């Protein structure tokens, strides 16, 4: 019934875990978040959050995973069931989130990943010399006609190709597939990032098209605005960045760690993978898009492009054009930039696929190849909705509810369950068993109290995020003005706050509000469906367990 | 770049590079533990 797979090498495991954490956000989100939230001052709450929340949560997830693996479970429902010793059957339904999140995030993330593969191709063939990416991108997505529907043939082709590649790698198994992909992808990602960073940071006035030193852009990222340290918005943004960059709260780390032997280390491996992610994010991620874009566009344009804390437009719409200044190196630079984004993406999406494969292998005795095809079919169906309804906002809905909200809910639950139900005594023993790194004992208290508090603050922050600054919002409440709920907050989204008309149809035509509500309903049905699948699996495998 | 920006960059990069390198080297040098 259970798989006997194990990691081939320790380095392979750490690279796979680091690759799972390193994603597009390391290069596109981090620099923009840092620049817009206090610059260098952002790095203080960022590193504090890493030590007090990120690292402890990594240790908890690795420990839960290895513990589950020893009981024959390589996906979250079974792992959470054994955390309660079989006496709390509801725990396996908490673990359903660890399946749901991976599948639903994979649906839109694989689509995003496919854009990077398409951009590698278009960089090499010189598409961006003939057409501006700002013109190319909406056309590529089929988002040019004002309709809420799109059927872009090229985008669909790259999506299916990318998904097929993921399925193929997953079907090869843990060592031949995932580990090999990480051993190829991670070094190439680092190499491409280093080459581009060196080229970007050494741009000078003599280079054609350069209007400002790239160091002005680097200064924009690193100049500490000390007032930011006293601003709750900065702390919340830093904690959020740490949370989302480490891929915690998904179930994929648990799954990878479950293939460890009982006495193999989790303390050092987890710390190494976590710090490797930080290296890619802080050193490479902070040295690419903003310095290069500033060199060619000037600081004012870059400041405007990163408002809102996203570097997506710089990465996909601006950089391909700017590379054209680099002569013969332009197609190589484009291929390297989107190639590193692709490697960052694919090593993450493989981590999203493995939990479903493990669940089907463990609980339904399904062959790996068949389980990989099942993963492909489910992601194709859900991902098609993200392609088809992209202009209607389905992609954004997937991103928010599964790629943001669900992660925080799952992490909050697991932190509570690990400390209160599994028990910190056993939990600490689990984390430190076989450890090749001595974890200071103070982390026992941090895991018990501080880490859950951090996650709770992020959860509440997402729930009632105000429009504007937190301090101003609290002052407004004190003055009796009420809470200015942000349209992007959880409650704001549910209530369609900030939208003049949330009708499903206008003049008989479906609206974005319909797509949003339909997508949310679908995601809820997927969650319930997975819960029923877990219930069926448990009844099937343990008919007398009740 | 201002002096404070350089200081923040140097301090952060030093911390991140040192920990990332230290732990990864330790992973490379420590053989995996076998089960009893």
Report a brief summary of the structure.
The complex is a heterodimer of chains A (546) and B (36). Chain A is an all-alpha fold and 546 residues long. Helices cover 71% and strands 1% of the residues of chain A.
Give an account of the 3D structure:
The complex is a heterodimer of chains A (546) and B (36). Chain A has 546 residues and is an all-alpha fold. Chain A has 24 helices and two strands. A two-stranded antiparallel ribbon of chain A has the order 1-2. In chain A, a hairpin with a 2-residue loop joins strand 1 (505-506) and strand 2 (509-510). The two termini of chain A are 20 Å apart. By secondary structure, chain B is mainly α. Chain B is built from one helix and no strands. The longest helix of chain B has 27 residues, at 3-29. Chains A and B meet through helix 1, helix 11 and helix 14 of A and helix 1 of B.
SSE diagram, text form:
The complex is a heterodimer of chains A (546) and B (36).
Chain A: H1 10-21, H2 24-28, H3 30-36, H4 43-70, H5 76-83, H6 91-124, H7 127-130, H8 133-141, H9 153-171, H10 174-201, H11 214-222, H12 232-245, H13 252-257, H14 267-284, H15 289-297, H16 299-305, H17 312-322, H18 330-364, H19 368-388, H20 394-432, H21 442-464, H22 470-478, H23 490-494, E1 505-506, E2 509-510, H24 512-541
Antiparallel strand pairs in A: 1-2
Helix pairs in contact in A: 1-10, 1-14, 1-18, 4-5, 4-12, 4-14, 4-20, 4-21, 5-6, 6-9, 6-18, 6-19, 6-20, 6-24, 9-10, 9-18, 9-19, 10-18, 11-15, 12-21, 15-16, 15-17, 18-19, 20-21, 20-24
Chain B: H1 3-29
């Amino acid at each position: 019934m259970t798989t006997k797979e194990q990691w081939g090498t320790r380095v392979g495991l750490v690279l796979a875990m680091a690759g799972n954490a390193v994603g597009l956000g390391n290069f596109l989100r981090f620099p923009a978040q840092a620049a817009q939230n206090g610059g260098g001052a952002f790095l203080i709450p960022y590193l504090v959050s890493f030590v007090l929340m990120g690292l402890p949560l990594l240790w908890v997830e690795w420990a839960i995973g290895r513990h589950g693996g020893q009981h024959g479970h390589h996906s979250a429902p079974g792992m959470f069931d054994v955390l309660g010793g079989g006496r709390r059957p509801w725990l396996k339904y908490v673990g359903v989130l660890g399946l749901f999140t991976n599948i639903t995030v994979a649906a839109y993330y694989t689509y995003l990943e496919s854009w990077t593969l398409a951009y590698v191709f278009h960089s090499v063939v010189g598409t961006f010399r003939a057409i501006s990416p700002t013109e190319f991108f909406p056309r590529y997505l089929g988002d040019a006609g004002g309709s809420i529907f799109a059927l872009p043939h090229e985008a669909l082709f790259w999506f299916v190709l990318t998904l097929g590649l993921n399925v193929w790698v997953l079907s090869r198994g843990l060592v031949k597939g995932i580990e090999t992909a990480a051993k190829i992808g991670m070094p190439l990602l680092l190499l491409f990032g280093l080459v581009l960073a060196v080229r970007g940071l050494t741009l000078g006035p003599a280079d054609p098209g350069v209007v400002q030193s790239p160091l002005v852009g680097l200064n924009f990222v690193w100049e500490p605005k000390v007032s930011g340290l006293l601003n709750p918005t900065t702390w919340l943004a830093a904690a959020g960045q740490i949370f989302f960059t480490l891929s915690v709260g998904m179930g994929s780390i648990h799954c990878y760690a479950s293939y460890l032997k009982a006495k193999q280390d989790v303390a050092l491996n987890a710390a190494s993978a976590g710090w490797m992610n930080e290296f890619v994010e802080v050193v490479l991620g902070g040295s690419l898009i903003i310095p290069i874009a500033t060199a060619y566009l000037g600081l004012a344009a870059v400041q405007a492009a990163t408002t809102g804390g996203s570097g997506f437009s710089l990465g996909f719409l601006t950089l391909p054009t700017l590379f054209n200044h680099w002569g013969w190196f332009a197609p190589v630079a484009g291929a390297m930039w989107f190639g590193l984004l692709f490697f960052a993406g694919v090593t993450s999406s493989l981590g999203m696929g493995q939990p479903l494969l493990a669940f089907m292998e463990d609980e339904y005795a399904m062959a790996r190849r068949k389980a990989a095809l099942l993963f492909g079919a489910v992601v194709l169906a859900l991902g098609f909705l993200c392609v088809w309804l992209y202009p209607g906002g389905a992609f954004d809905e997937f991103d928010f509810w599964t790629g943001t909200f669900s992660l925080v809910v799952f992490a909050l639950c697991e932190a509570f369950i690990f400390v209160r139900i599994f028990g910190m005594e056993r939990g600490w023993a689990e984390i430190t068993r076989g450890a090749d790194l001595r974890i200071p004992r103070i982390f026992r208290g941090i895991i018990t109290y501080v880490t859950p508090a951090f996650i709770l603050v992020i959860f509440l922050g997402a729930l009632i995020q105000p429009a504007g600054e937190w301090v101003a919002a609290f002052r407004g409440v004190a003055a009796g003005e009420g809470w200015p709920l942000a349209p992007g907050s959880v409650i704001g989204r549910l209530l369609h706050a900030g939208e003049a008309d949330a009708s499903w149809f206008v003049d008989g035509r479906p609206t974005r509000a319909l797509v949003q509500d339909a997508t949310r309903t679908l995601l809820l049905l997927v969650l319930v469906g997975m819960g029923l699948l877990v219930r069926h699996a448990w009844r099937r495998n343990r008919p007398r367990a009740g | 770049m201002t002096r404070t920006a350089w200081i923040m960059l140097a301090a952060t990069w030093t911390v991140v590079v040192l920990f990332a390198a230290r732990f990864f080297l330790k992973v490379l040098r420590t053989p995996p533990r076998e089960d009893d």
